[in-house]
Amino acid sequence: MGFLDLFKKQPEVYENLDLSWLEVDMHSHLIPGIDDGSKSMEESLHLIKRLSDYGLRKIITTPHIMSEYYRNTPEIVQMGLEDLRRAVKKEGISIEIEAAAEYYMDEIFLEKIKNGEEVLTFGDNYILVETGFINKPQMLLEIIFQLEMAGYKPILAHPERYQYLIGDKGLLQDLTDRQILFQLNLLSLTGFYSKPVKDFGEKLVEMGLVKFFGTDCHNPRYLDMMETLPKSKLYSKIKQLDVLNSTL
After folding, report:
1. Does the pLDDT value for residue 162 go beyond 60?
2. Under which EC number(s) is this enzyme classified (predicted)?
């Protein structure tokens, strides 16, 4: 090594990403062309192969259903799932693929629930729901109540990303008291979204509020960054948590 080499920044070395402890990824966007996730079957197969190589045995992919942007239906999702399964089988990738959805909580979604319309669930009647990132939805607790009254078990997708929740300890306590299930994005612990999101995500983990983890994978960039997860100070801890992914 030359003298000047001492001042060069050496590449960081960390262990390979292992998700075999998680077993099941229950939040991703891998059905091509129906939301802001994978754009092609080729891209989907690339992402699924990588997820399989991380040690996952099953993927429950969850395309957006949003009344204003992604007007998917259970039929559209199911047709996309069947196409994806055929492609995965043809490619020889050994992983189980299912599909549900990530529902945006608004007035139209509330009406769907009240009217008893078909919605996509997984596991023990779980339903994955999300909100906008900035402002607290006025009907947040009402929608959660209606979901529970209808027999569903709502899982709040990536609560660590909601700016309104980061600054509202009272709301966080309300959700905790209601025993709402939280799903945290593994990417949040890498700093992928922002430092405040990372810090709040770590807080939720330390408080024992996280019951599910998900990749929320949309494209290769997500997985590139997720491979830095072993650098996270909580990487060893989250692998020991009693989360519910493996029951799905």
Report:
1. yes
2. 3.1.3.48
